[in-house]
Design a protein that fits this description.
single chain; 5 helices; 63 residues; mainly alpha
């Protein structure tokens, strides 16, 4: 299984582990299938949604 890092795009992360979708939705990432999700990294998305990227990665690791 591929590793999900802060530099992984949202779309790629969801392909690696679809179980993280509720984690992303919980922090306000409601457009998981939109075109920007294919190019936006988890770190960029965390920044846009006002969340520390390390906190997001911890939530993803526990999903």
């Amino acid at each position: 299984m591929a590793e999900i890092t802060k530099n992984t795009t949202i779309g790629e992360a969801l392909r690696i582990n679809p179980d993280i979708a509720p984690v992303l939705m919980e922090i306000g990432m409601h457009c998981l299938g939109c075109p920007s999700a294919q190019g936006e990294t988890l770190e960029e998305a965390a920044m846009v949604h006002g969340l520390d990227a390390d906190v997001l990665m911890e939530k993803i690791a526990n999903a």
